[in-house]
Design a protein that fits this description.
By secondary structure, this protein is mainly beta. The protein has one helix and eight strands, in the order E-E-E-E-E-E-H-E-E. The mean pLDDT is about 80.
């Protein structure tokens, strides 16, 4: 599991293995009391700015599944994530 946090967000990334298939799951939780004011959001991962979720209605948590995972992803020790919402942007480094 990789985990990390920023001023407003706490997140983790977990890999599940079932038989021969692997899947990843990102979970981000908003840590401030003003979460009701947060609107649409975009989550990007990595140097290539892979967009995982865009213009979803934000509530207190964001959960994104990654079914395109390979064994290489399973070995990564860090993931750089950025979350944009309500005109704000924060970066989170998820690490072991």
């Amino acid at each position: 599991m990789l985990k990390g946090e920023s001023e407003s967000w706490k997140g983790d990334y977990r890999v599940s293995v079932t038989g021969n298939s692997r899947s990843g799951k990102y979970t981000f939780n908003y840590q401030k009391d003003d979460w009701k004011d947060v609107g649409k959001y975009t989550v990007t991962v990595g140097k290539n700015e892979l967009i995982l979720e865009e213009d979803g209605l934000l509530n207190r948590s964001i959960i994104i599944t990654d079914d395109q995972i390979s064994s290489i992803h399973d070995q990564e020790s860090t993931k750089d994530v950025s979350i944009e919402w309500d005109g704000k942007k924060e970066k989170i480094e998820l690490s072991r």
